[in-house]
Design brief:
The structure holds 2 protein chains of 2 kinds.
Chain A (H helix, E strand, L loop, with lengths): L32 H18 L2 E6 L6 H10 L8 E7 L4 E6 L1 H6 L2 H16 L3 H16 L2 H4 L2
Parallel strand pairs in A: 1-2
Antiparallel strand pairs in A: 2-3
Chain B lengths: L10 H5 L11 H23 L20 E3 L40 H4 L32 E6 L1
The chains are: A alpha+beta, B mainly alpha.
Protein backbone atom coordinates (compact mmCIF):
# COMPACT_ATOMS: atom_id res chain seq x y z
CA UNK A 1 0.00 0.00 0.00
CA UNK A 2 1.39 3.33 -0.99
CA UNK A 3 1.68 5.89 1.68
CA UNK A 4 0.80 9.42 0.71
CA UNK A 5 3.88 10.68 2.46
CA UNK A 6 6.42 8.77 0.48
CA UNK A 7 9.12 10.90 -1.05
CA UNK A 8 11.16 8.23 -2.75
CA UNK A 9 10.89 7.80 -6.44
CA UNK A 10 8.99 4.80 -7.70
CA UNK A 11 9.38 5.36 -11.41
CA UNK A 12 5.78 6.31 -11.87
CA UNK A 13 6.16 7.80 -15.32
CA UNK A 14 4.14 6.27 -18.09
CA UNK A 15 4.48 6.88 -21.76
CA UNK A 16 2.00 9.73 -21.49
CA UNK A 17 3.23 11.42 -18.36
CA UNK A 18 6.39 13.12 -17.35
CA UNK A 19 8.98 11.58 -15.13
CA UNK A 20 8.90 12.57 -11.51
CA UNK A 21 11.28 15.30 -10.51
CA UNK A 22 13.06 12.83 -8.31
CA UNK A 23 13.71 10.64 -11.32
CA UNK A 24 15.60 13.32 -13.12
CA UNK A 25 19.30 13.22 -12.83
CA UNK A 26 21.47 16.11 -11.83
CA UNK A 27 21.14 18.90 -14.34
CA UNK A 28 23.90 19.49 -16.80
CA UNK A 29 25.30 22.66 -15.31
CA UNK A 30 26.46 24.39 -18.40
CA UNK A 31 26.13 27.94 -17.14
CA UNK A 32 26.02 29.40 -13.71
CA UNK A 33 22.88 30.91 -12.34
CA UNK A 34 24.24 34.39 -12.85
CA UNK A 35 24.97 33.67 -16.49
CA UNK A 36 21.56 32.12 -16.99
CA UNK A 37 19.90 35.11 -15.39
CA UNK A 38 21.75 37.49 -17.70
CA UNK A 39 20.83 35.38 -20.69
CA UNK A 40 17.23 35.19 -19.64
CA UNK A 41 16.95 38.91 -19.13
CA UNK A 42 18.64 39.72 -22.41
CA UNK A 43 16.38 37.39 -24.39
CA UNK A 44 13.22 38.53 -22.70
CA UNK A 45 13.96 42.22 -22.81
CA UNK A 46 15.06 42.23 -26.44
CA UNK A 47 11.96 40.32 -27.41
CA UNK A 48 9.66 42.64 -25.51
CA UNK A 49 11.30 45.81 -26.72
CA UNK A 50 11.29 44.89 -30.35
CA UNK A 51 8.21 42.75 -30.66
CA UNK A 52 10.28 40.15 -32.44
CA UNK A 53 10.82 36.78 -30.89
CA UNK A 54 14.46 36.10 -30.19
CA UNK A 55 15.42 32.55 -29.44
CA UNK A 56 18.87 31.22 -28.81
CA UNK A 57 20.07 27.78 -29.74
CA UNK A 58 23.38 26.50 -28.47
CA UNK A 59 24.44 23.13 -29.71
CA UNK A 60 25.75 21.19 -32.60
CA UNK A 61 24.47 22.27 -36.01
CA UNK A 62 25.64 19.35 -38.06
CA UNK A 63 27.64 19.52 -41.25
CA UNK A 64 25.25 21.91 -43.01
CA UNK A 65 24.93 24.57 -40.39
CA UNK A 66 22.82 27.01 -42.39
CA UNK A 67 20.26 24.41 -43.39
CA UNK A 68 20.02 23.13 -39.86
CA UNK A 69 19.64 26.65 -38.46
CA UNK A 70 16.90 27.50 -40.94
CA UNK A 71 15.15 24.27 -40.08
CA UNK A 72 15.31 25.18 -36.41
CA UNK A 73 14.01 28.64 -37.20
CA UNK A 74 11.01 27.18 -38.99
CA UNK A 75 10.14 25.28 -35.84
CA UNK A 76 10.92 28.05 -33.38
CA UNK A 77 7.32 29.03 -32.71
CA UNK A 78 3.93 29.58 -34.17
CA UNK A 79 4.99 32.76 -35.99
CA UNK A 80 8.50 32.23 -37.29
CA UNK A 81 7.98 35.18 -39.64
CA UNK A 82 8.71 37.50 -36.76
CA UNK A 83 11.23 35.25 -35.09
CA UNK A 84 14.97 35.68 -34.93
CA UNK A 85 17.05 32.64 -34.21
CA UNK A 86 20.61 32.90 -33.00
CA UNK A 87 22.15 29.48 -33.43
CA UNK A 88 25.58 28.94 -32.01
CA UNK A 89 27.63 25.83 -32.40
CA UNK A 90 30.60 26.42 -30.12
CA UNK A 91 32.25 23.18 -31.07
CA UNK A 92 32.19 24.08 -34.75
CA UNK A 93 32.88 27.75 -34.04
CA UNK A 94 29.89 28.83 -36.09
CA UNK A 95 27.20 31.42 -35.45
CA UNK A 96 24.09 31.57 -37.59
CA UNK A 97 21.49 34.29 -37.30
CA UNK A 98 18.24 33.51 -39.08
CA UNK A 99 15.50 36.09 -39.45
CA UNK A 100 12.02 35.47 -40.76
CA UNK A 101 10.51 37.49 -43.56
CA UNK A 102 8.93 40.04 -41.22
CA UNK A 103 11.90 40.25 -38.95
CA UNK A 104 14.33 40.73 -41.81
CA UNK A 105 12.55 43.93 -42.81
CA UNK A 106 13.58 45.43 -39.50
CA UNK A 107 16.82 43.52 -39.20
CA UNK A 108 18.56 43.70 -42.54
CA UNK A 109 21.32 41.25 -43.23
CA UNK A 110 23.94 43.93 -42.74
CA UNK A 111 22.74 44.56 -39.20
CA UNK A 112 22.81 40.84 -38.50
CA UNK A 113 26.31 40.61 -39.89
CA UNK A 114 27.42 43.41 -37.60
CA UNK A 115 25.94 41.67 -34.58
CA UNK A 116 27.52 38.40 -35.66
CA UNK A 117 30.86 40.13 -35.96
CA UNK A 118 30.55 41.50 -32.46
CA UNK A 119 29.58 38.09 -31.16
CA UNK A 120 32.42 36.27 -32.85
CA UNK A 121 34.89 38.79 -31.47
CA UNK A 122 33.73 38.01 -27.95
CA UNK A 123 33.70 34.29 -28.64
CA UNK A 124 37.23 34.41 -29.90
CA UNK A 125 38.14 36.00 -26.59
CA UNK A 126 36.51 33.14 -24.77
CA UNK A 127 33.42 34.98 -23.58
CA UNK A 128 30.41 32.98 -24.68
CA UNK A 129 27.72 34.61 -22.57
CA UNK A 130 29.04 38.14 -22.97
CA UNK A 131 29.14 37.75 -26.73
CA UNK A 132 25.60 36.46 -26.88
CA UNK A 133 24.32 39.30 -24.77
CA UNK A 134 26.16 41.92 -26.79
CA UNK A 135 24.82 40.43 -29.99
CA UNK A 136 21.29 40.42 -28.65
CA UNK A 137 21.67 44.02 -27.59
CA UNK A 138 22.90 45.05 -31.02
CA UNK A 139 20.12 43.20 -32.77
CA UNK A 140 17.42 44.68 -30.58
CA UNK A 141 18.88 48.17 -30.88
CA UNK A 142 18.85 47.83 -34.62
CA UNK A 143 15.32 46.48 -34.74
CA UNK A 144 14.01 49.29 -32.60
CA UNK A 145 10.63 49.57 -31.03
CA UNK A 146 7.66 48.20 -32.93
CA UNK A 147 5.55 51.32 -32.37
CA UNK A 148 7.99 53.52 -34.24
CA UNK A 149 7.83 51.22 -37.22
CA UNK A 150 4.09 51.30 -37.64
CA UNK A 151 3.95 54.80 -39.01
CA UNK B 1 67.09 49.92 51.51
CA UNK B 2 66.44 47.84 54.44
CA UNK B 3 63.37 45.72 54.44
CA UNK B 4 61.96 43.49 51.71
CA UNK B 5 61.79 44.77 48.14
CA UNK B 6 58.33 45.95 47.12
CA UNK B 7 56.24 43.35 45.44
CA UNK B 8 56.13 43.86 41.74
CA UNK B 9 52.85 44.70 40.11
CA UNK B 10 51.85 44.56 36.50
CA UNK B 11 54.65 44.20 34.03
CA UNK B 12 57.23 44.38 36.71
CA UNK B 13 55.99 41.22 38.21
CA UNK B 14 55.94 39.45 34.88
CA UNK B 15 59.34 40.61 33.88
CA UNK B 16 60.78 39.58 37.13
CA UNK B 17 63.25 42.39 36.89
CA UNK B 18 63.30 45.92 37.94
CA UNK B 19 61.09 48.62 36.57
CA UNK B 20 61.81 49.44 32.92
CA UNK B 21 63.61 46.24 32.28
CA UNK B 22 61.99 43.77 29.91
CA UNK B 23 62.65 40.14 30.08
CA UNK B 24 64.61 38.78 27.16
CA UNK B 25 62.47 37.11 24.44
CA UNK B 26 64.05 34.17 22.81
CA UNK B 27 64.14 33.48 19.10
CA UNK B 28 61.38 30.92 19.12
CA UNK B 29 58.95 33.37 20.59
CA UNK B 30 59.90 36.02 18.08
CA UNK B 31 59.33 33.60 15.23
CA UNK B 32 56.03 32.48 16.67
CA UNK B 33 54.72 35.99 16.96
CA UNK B 34 56.11 37.60 13.84
CA UNK B 35 55.78 34.64 11.50
CA UNK B 36 53.33 32.25 13.06
CA UNK B 37 50.45 34.65 13.56
CA UNK B 38 50.50 36.09 10.01
CA UNK B 39 50.80 32.60 8.62
CA UNK B 40 47.84 31.48 10.69
CA UNK B 41 45.77 34.37 9.40
CA UNK B 42 46.72 33.58 5.82
CA UNK B 43 45.90 29.92 6.23
CA UNK B 44 42.52 30.70 7.75
CA UNK B 45 41.63 33.07 4.95
CA UNK B 46 42.83 30.61 2.34
CA UNK B 47 40.74 27.84 3.81
CA UNK B 48 37.72 30.11 3.85
CA UNK B 49 38.05 31.24 0.27
CA UNK B 50 39.73 28.59 -1.83
CA UNK B 51 37.24 25.70 -1.66
CA UNK B 52 34.35 27.99 -2.52
CA UNK B 53 35.76 28.74 -5.93
CA UNK B 54 34.48 27.58 -9.25
CA UNK B 55 34.34 23.85 -9.24
CA UNK B 56 34.41 23.37 -12.91
CA UNK B 57 36.43 25.12 -15.50
CA UNK B 58 34.56 27.64 -17.51
CA UNK B 59 33.64 26.64 -21.03
CA UNK B 60 35.52 28.55 -23.68
CA UNK B 61 33.98 28.75 -27.13
CA UNK B 62 35.84 26.51 -29.48
CA UNK B 63 36.44 23.72 -27.03
CA UNK B 64 34.73 20.46 -27.92
CA UNK B 65 31.04 20.73 -27.19
CA UNK B 66 29.82 17.64 -25.41
CA UNK B 67 26.64 19.07 -23.97
CA UNK B 68 23.12 18.42 -25.06
CA UNK B 69 21.75 21.14 -27.30
CA UNK B 70 19.86 23.87 -25.50
CA UNK B 71 17.31 26.24 -26.89
CA UNK B 72 16.43 29.31 -24.91
CA UNK B 73 13.36 31.35 -25.57
CA UNK B 74 12.09 34.56 -24.02
CA UNK B 75 9.48 34.66 -21.35
CA UNK B 76 5.99 34.95 -22.70
CA UNK B 77 4.51 38.42 -22.64
CA UNK B 78 2.40 39.37 -19.67
CA UNK B 79 3.92 36.81 -17.42
CA UNK B 80 2.92 38.69 -14.29
CA UNK B 81 6.26 40.30 -13.72
CA UNK B 82 8.28 37.21 -14.24
CA UNK B 83 7.64 35.54 -10.93
CA UNK B 84 5.32 32.69 -11.43
CA UNK B 85 2.33 32.54 -13.70
CA UNK B 86 -0.22 35.26 -13.59
CA UNK B 87 -3.61 34.65 -12.05
CA UNK B 88 -5.26 33.69 -15.29
CA UNK B 89 -2.49 31.79 -16.97
CA UNK B 90 -2.33 28.11 -16.58
CA UNK B 91 -0.26 25.78 -18.61
CA UNK B 92 -2.45 26.43 -21.60
CA UNK B 93 -1.87 30.17 -21.38
CA UNK B 94 1.86 29.99 -21.75
CA UNK B 95 2.81 31.52 -25.02
CA UNK B 96 4.69 29.71 -27.66
CA UNK B 97 2.94 26.46 -26.98
CA UNK B 98 3.66 25.14 -30.40
CA UNK B 99 7.40 25.38 -30.15
CA UNK B 100 9.67 22.81 -28.76
CA UNK B 101 11.88 25.45 -27.32
CA UNK B 102 10.86 25.07 -23.77
CA UNK B 103 9.39 27.72 -21.57
CA UNK B 104 10.83 28.84 -18.31
CA UNK B 105 10.52 26.40 -15.50
CA UNK B 106 8.98 29.22 -13.52
CA UNK B 107 5.95 28.51 -15.63
CA UNK B 108 3.99 25.31 -15.72
CA UNK B 109 5.28 22.63 -17.97
CA UNK B 110 3.90 22.67 -21.42
CA UNK B 111 2.28 19.57 -22.78
CA UNK B 112 4.92 19.27 -25.46
CA UNK B 113 7.74 19.69 -23.03
CA UNK B 114 8.43 16.06 -22.45
CA UNK B 115 8.08 15.09 -26.06
CA UNK B 116 11.22 16.84 -27.11
CA UNK B 117 13.94 14.80 -25.58
CA UNK B 118 13.58 13.23 -22.23
CA UNK B 119 17.07 11.82 -22.44
CA UNK B 120 18.82 15.12 -22.76
CA UNK B 121 19.47 15.04 -19.08
CA UNK B 122 18.36 18.58 -18.50
CA UNK B 123 20.69 21.45 -18.81
CA UNK B 124 19.61 24.05 -16.40
CA UNK B 125 16.93 24.98 -14.06
CA UNK B 126 15.89 28.27 -12.71
CA UNK B 127 15.00 30.80 -15.31
CA UNK B 128 16.13 28.95 -18.36
CA UNK B 129 14.77 26.45 -20.72
CA UNK B 130 16.25 23.57 -22.50
CA UNK B 131 15.41 21.22 -25.23
CA UNK B 132 16.80 19.19 -27.99
CA UNK B 133 14.97 20.38 -31.01
CA UNK B 134 17.19 18.52 -33.37
CA UNK B 135 15.85 15.26 -32.04
CA UNK B 136 12.32 16.35 -31.31
CA UNK B 137 11.08 17.21 -34.72
CA UNK B 138 7.70 15.72 -34.01
CA UNK B 139 6.86 18.31 -31.40
CA UNK B 140 6.54 21.33 -33.63
CA UNK B 141 5.51 21.56 -37.19
CA UNK B 142 7.83 23.58 -39.39
CA UNK B 143 6.19 26.79 -40.48
CA UNK B 144 7.26 28.53 -43.63
CA UNK B 145 8.56 31.95 -42.66
CA UNK B 146 8.98 33.32 -46.14
CA UNK B 147 12.32 34.44 -47.48
CA UNK B 148 14.78 34.17 -44.68
CA UNK B 149 17.54 36.58 -43.88
CA UNK B 150 20.38 36.56 -41.48
CA UNK B 151 24.09 36.26 -41.26
CA UNK B 152 26.74 33.71 -40.59
CA UNK B 153 29.98 34.03 -38.76
CA UNK B 154 32.89 31.91 -37.67
CA UNK B 155 35.73 32.60 -35.31
Amino acid sequence: MTSSLEVESHDTATKDTAAARTDEGAPDELFTFQELARLDEALTMSSRETGLRFTLYIGDLGPRTRVQAEDLHARSGSHPTDAVLIAISPGQKVVEVVTGAGASRRLPDRACALAVLSMTTSFANGDLIGGIINGLRQLSDQAGHPATHRH
Amino acid sequence: MGGPPPRGVGADRLNGGGAGKLSPVNTVEVLLILVGIPLAVIVVLALLTLPGGRKRTRYKPGQPWDHAPVWYEPHPEGGGGGHGPGPGSGAAAVGGGSTNALGSSMYPEQPEERNTDSASGGTSHGDSSHGAPAHGASAARPVNAGPLGGARGTW
